[in-house]
């Protein structure tokens, strides 16, 4: 969808509020650092839960921001070049491209296609390009995106694929991981407290390390939308925690 640049911020604000009310997320890409900072400040002043993903953010914080966006800690992520983030976020129902008609690297055909693709994983995903004219890059990007979407729809119909359950799967796995994290944290805290009263056996140390490792793998699988793998890892973590609890109870007996 192409919209005029005039009044783009007010229009964007309205679109953001609609998405936030439905617990959906928004990505906004700007051309300059100054515009990204000013837009973020403006949205914050107007009560929008927003974060700015700037180039100085280190890798760990970037991963945390993306996870927080998916978890609903905030609703809008503003950035300049969102392409390199490898963003594949089913919760994002709107990608807003400001100054889409300003030809250059960030508004080239390839960049626009990749940016538009950030909304492809949401069944109701939309892309709004704010522009005063349609550039050749925009036209080619729109044509290619339309072709890809038609191909995907045809594939879904032919293979009986229903993308709608994905949202529920994400909610389910998010809830599952939150409960598992709370239980793991409590168990490891108990284990750490017990260590202060006695020397922890090597076998118990190995179990704690393995629980930590598998928990990290479980979260990574969930981030990659590998729900079955995440569930299997969760079961393995549960088995190990039961073993650790049994080991601790045996030592206390």
Question: How would you describe this protein?
Answer:
The chain has 253 residues and is of the alpha/beta class. It has two domains: 2-159, 3-Layer(aba) Sandwich (Rossmann fold); 165-252. The chain contains eight helices and six strands. It has helices spanning 8-21, 33-45, 59-71, 109-116, 136-159, 165-195, 202-223, 227-252, and strands at residues 2-3, 25-29, 50-53, 76-79, 92-97, 126-130. A six-stranded parallel sheet has the order 1-6-5-2-4-3, with helices on both faces. β5 (92-97), α4 and β6 (126-130) form a beta-alpha-beta unit. α6 runs parallel beside α8 and α7 runs antiparallel to α8. The protein is elongated, with a radius of gyration of 23 Å.
The CATH homology group name of the largest domain: P-loop containing nucleotide triphosphate hydrolases
Shape: elongated
* Second-tier CATH architecture of the largest domain: 3-Layer(aba) Sandwich
Classify the helix fraction into a percent range: 55-70%
What's the topology here?
Blueprint: E1 2-3, H1 8-21, E2 25-29, H2 33-45, E3 50-53, H3 59-71, E4 76-79, E5 92-97, H4 109-116, E6 126-130, H5 136-159, H6 165-195, H7 202-223, H8 227-252
Parallel strand pairs: 1-6, 2-4, 2-5, 3-4, 5-6
Helix pairs in contact: 4-5, 6-7, 6-8, 7-8
Features:
single chain; 253 residues; alpha/beta; Rossmann fold; 2 domains; six-stranded parallel β-sheet; 8 helices
Compact summary:
Residues 208-243 form the UVR domain. This protein has 253 residues and is of the alpha/beta class.
